[in-house]
Write a structure and sequence with these properties.
about 290 residues, Jelly Rolls, Immunoglobulin-like, six-stranded antiparallel β-sheet
Length: about 290
């Protein structure tokens, strides 16, 4: 019991270097990814799509499994464009997107690969449209290119060992609904193309840093009533608030109206609220009853 209490205390009051996970995926069994969207919009698409990685080609980053795409998704030699789209999530500036990727071991002949990470904002996305060359060039509502692995399709630009890529979200106006997308995008790719081989993606995550502040700053902000059954009121002007359970998982980002948030939908229990003001952020433990 003492160890459990110490654990809870450290979560509630020691969040300086903590983070919460918005979404994560290890791709151990891609048949479970029922809320993800997979599209093969290549210029001359085969019937294939993203698939469970083959451990004979290489093992996953953290385990045996990963997700993969290869040259066979496009027949002939033209534009290969295969999409893997995440469920809708809420992003804000400072969120960190990470994933690992690699291609096959360096051999006598290198067929360059390319992978894009794109974003579409809004509660729903518009999928790339059309067929043939038009479909292969379409990005739908995923007009924001966050990063590109081997953008110029060089023979040495895509890593041959698992390598982590990271992007820190910026430029958003606040908490924004969005979908992220991996696009395996190779010009001159396909079964007879001079580009495109085989890539894997693994250990994908979006995390949000949870910053603590000094006790002096925290003392100037009051949160009441505590415990509460319906609303949590703040003594200062608040721009936004995030509610976490004691494992550090984000459970709600309720709207702030008249310096209070509605917590009626929360299960009874202990929570931590991160309160964001123009002066910075504070964290406060509260009880929902």
């Amino acid at each position: 019991m003492i160890r459990k209490l110490l654990f809870i205390t450290s979560l509630a009051f020691g969040l300086t270097n903590a983070q919460t996970t918005i979404i994560s995926q290890e791709f151990e069994d891609i048949t479970t990814l029922t809320d993800w969207t997979f599209l093969n919009k290549s210029q001359s698409p085969s019937t294939g799509n993203w698939f469970q990685g083959n451990p004979v080609v290489f093992l996953g980053n953290a385990d045996t499994e990963y997700i993969a795409a290869n040259y066979a998704l496009n027949t002939g030699s033209s534009v290969l464009s295969a999409w893997m789209i995440t469920p809708n999530v809420t992003l804000k500036n400072g969120d960190v997107i990470k994933f690992f990727t690699r291609t096959t071991d360096l051999g006598a002949t290198v067929y360059p690969d390319r992978l894009e990470l794109r974003m579409s904002t809004g509660a729903t996305f518009t999928a790339p449209a059309g067929t043939g060359a038009a479909g292969a060039s379409s990005v739908g509502s995923f007009t924001t290119l966050l990063l590109s692995v081997n953008p110029t399709l060089t023979s040495t630009g895509y890593p041959h060992t698992w390598t982590e890529y990271s992007y820190t979200v910026s430029g958003l106006s606040g908490d924004i609904a969005a979908n992220l997308a991996f696009r395996y995008y190779v010009t001159g790719g396909g079964t007879t193309g001079s580009n495109s081989d085989y890539i894997g993606v693994d250990t994908f995550s979006v995390t949000r840093p949870v910053m603590a502040v000094s006790d002096v700053s925290k003392a100037s902000m009051s949160v009441y009533p505590n415990p509460t059954a319906d609303y949590l009121t703040f003594s200062q002007k608040v721009t936004s608030a995030d509610v976490y359970d004691l494992s550090g998982k984000l459970v709600a980002s309720p709207a702030v109206v008249d310096s209070k948030i509605d917590v009626k939908s929360l299960q009874n229990g202990n929570y931590v609220v991160k309160v964001n003001t123009e002066a910075g952020s504070t964290t406060h433990k509260f009880i929902k009853k």
